[in-house]
Amino acid sequence: MAALLEVEHLRIEFPTRRGTLVAVDDISLQIAEGEVLGVVGESGAGKSLTGTAIIGLLEPPGRIAAGEIRLMGRRIDNLPYEEMRKIRGKQIGAVFQDPLTSLNPLYSVGRQLVETIQTHTDMSPTQARTRALELLHEVGIPAAERRIDHYPHQFSGGMRQRVVIALALCVNPKLVIADEPTTALDVSIQAQIIALLKRLCRDHGTAIMLITHDMGVIAETADRVAVMYAGRIAEIGPVRSVIKEAKHPYSHGLMGSIPKINDEKERLDQIEGSMPRLTEIPPGCAFNPRCPHVFDRCRVERPELLDTGVTQASCWLYAHG
Amino acid sequence: MFAYIVRRALQSILVMAAVAFVAFALFQYMGDPINQMVAQDASAAEREALRRTLGLDRPFYVQFLVFLKNLMTGNFGFSFRIGTPVAQIIAERLPATLELVLVAALFALFIGVPAGVYTGLHRHGAMSRFMLTVSLIGVSLPTFLIGILLILIFAVLLGWLPSFGRGQTVQLGFWSTGFLTASGLKALILPSITLGLFQTTLIMRLVRSEMLEVLRSDYIKFARARGLTNRAINFGHALKNTLVPVITIAGLQIGGLIAFAIITETVFQWPGMGFLFITAIQFVDVPVMSSYLVLVALFFVLINLVVDLLYFAVDPRLRVERSVSAH
User: Fold this and answer.
1) Is A163 on the interface with B (CB under 8 A)?
2) Is A241 within the bounds of a domain?
């Protein structure tokens, strides 16, 4: 399959008074058409920043310092604001974490849908409204004909996230960046929302970049997964392989911390220590102080992504020769 | 909605009654108006006679009830000083003040809101910094000083605009307007800038800080992610969300304009209600003073009522009908 989105050697920096913080360091990944790529990692690993950079909404002083982002072969990381605006929503949709605050409280959901549809298409207000109704049906809002004129505060959290999904998908983008789309929701609603997102994207052939720290969500949804640690990709590969036989010691540890239903253990396995802050990333492999397999090379030289067979891991254990 | 309006109206009546009482009670202690009205050598008997004619010999609460009853029927009493009905004096003066306040309020809104939006959007621009610095003058200089400075520059040194009065007015029924003559319009410029400058800068700074706040919110980020145009985001989404606090403050400030008109009217010898009030104080003209206070309070109450109704128009979350939140 042809790559829909290609991120190459992306580096995101925050200039501060005490020097430059590198929040995302040399990340490369591809998403194929219709593919679901999961991105997991702890808070501060750079997952959300990568997503934000792809839709071109990094907040200053954050900036892309190096690397390229290409959508269908076209470079999009250096486009002028107005050019990038036309891509946002139309070709790359986005769903953010908190559905309670993602919608403008002063406009009805119908108006927000119509506005988005009309921004990107030539539809008349009537056509756009018909399309908005279809979308609300599609995301499973009951009594959509009545609900279309309701305001966000009249919807529950789960229903609001459905509206947000409708907004993200309203002009059939090629890619949706879903940044923690279920974190703010009830556990019982989470599965529904994920299932909905997955079904819609399969029906429309939309690729998803699913950013989360919930391995369960990734296991159910993603085709491939990228594990991020301290601004870099630790391991990337097919979701089954990463979960069953993670090669990188960090992703291995991460998978070990997923509770299993028939497990007798009192405590979950955990990785000793915590992820370093951006100002204190050690030389060599960022994971070396916590790694059970650490050896001399890890403390001096930074590993690139190396082939481990099925997955790729940035770990010297897989250096051949 | 209807119940809310009724409730607000009842509250307003209570507020008005309280204000009427305070206005009335205050002036019981402002010296004896009889002294101002009779000749120096008037005998005690003459004074008593006058006191009785004016009803000032009756007990405090009776005087208040009479005052209230008169207010309800639109009878504001007679001016102690010139002997004409207060209602008539106020009717002559009211248009001058209201026109001045109207122009000042429009000035404040039409300069303040766009300036606030501009400085909010171009936070680090040189023009924004300049406007913010200039706005400090409006916030910190007292009104009378601004008025005198404007008179000095535009009336005395440049001679472009009149330094006092309303210019020529046209009588439309009971309403005398300065809007229809060139000299009337020219005369409005300096006083309304003087009166509205503080409010302009206040509204500008308020809109700016609200814009900065709203532009950081998640729904603006999501609106950007949806690819909406900057115009739609800044004016459709951001500005509308700043309006609730702005309406509150602007409403209170328009009430303030009516009250602060006293100073501006004195500086510009503007024949309005504030000027009338100052003259009334000098002569302990109690009926004029209490009527003025009651009228200003009435404007405040009305403006607040309008502000509350505007909330409903702007913010759907306040339209508390049946809750339709479904899970």
Assistant:
1) no
2) yes
